[in-house]
Amino acid sequence: MSVKVEDKLFLNRYRVDEESHLRIVDPALCRSGCSNQACLYICPANVYKLEQDRISVAYEGCLECGSCRIGCPHFNIEWRFPRGGYGIRHKFG
Ligand code: SF4
């Protein structure tokens, strides 16, 4: 029996901050200066999505793994941990 990633992600619990801890520094760079838009593929939680001509950031589902921080070839993602008390809560950790 295989378990889908979406089913595993459903087990996670979050305390969502109203303030995002992720920010695309220069959205225009994503639109015109980025050839591969790696953030769309490296995030295990699908936080980044291409919506028409812009990349949306659903920070609420972030796993805080840091992959996007180092994976963006232009270092165009401002990344920090959520404020104290917010973010993912690992159910079994
Ligand atoms: Fe996705 Fe990890 Fe970046 Fe969060 S830190 S947005 S889970 S790649």
Q: What would you note in describing this structure?
A:
The strands form three sheets. The protein has a two-stranded antiparallel ribbon. It has one domain: Alpha-Beta Plaits. It has helices at 5-9, 27-33, 39-42, 67-71, and strands at 13-15, 22-24, 48-51, 54-57, 77-79, 87-89. The radius of gyration is 14 Å and the shape is globular. By secondary structure, the protein is an alpha+beta fold. A hairpin with a 2-residue loop joins strand 3 and strand 4 (54-57). The two termini are 24 Å apart. It is 23% helix and 22% strand. The model has no long low-confidence stretch (mean pLDDT 91). The structure holds iron/sulfur cluster. The site of iron/sulfur cluster has 13 residues, from helix 4. Iron/sulfur cluster binds next to helix 4.
Coarse morphology: globular
Cα-atom radius of gyration:
14 Å
Structural class category: alpha+beta
Total count of strands: 6
Q: Specify the biggest β-sheet.
A: 2 strands, antiparallel
How many domains in all?
A: 1
Which parts are unreliable, with pLDDT below 50 for 5 consecutive residues or more?
A: none
Q: Might you state the CATH topology name?
A: Alpha-Beta Plaits
In round numbers, the mean pLDDT is 91
Task: Describe this structure in a few short sentences.
The chain is α+β, with helices and mostly antiparallel strands and 93 residues long. It has four helices and six strands.
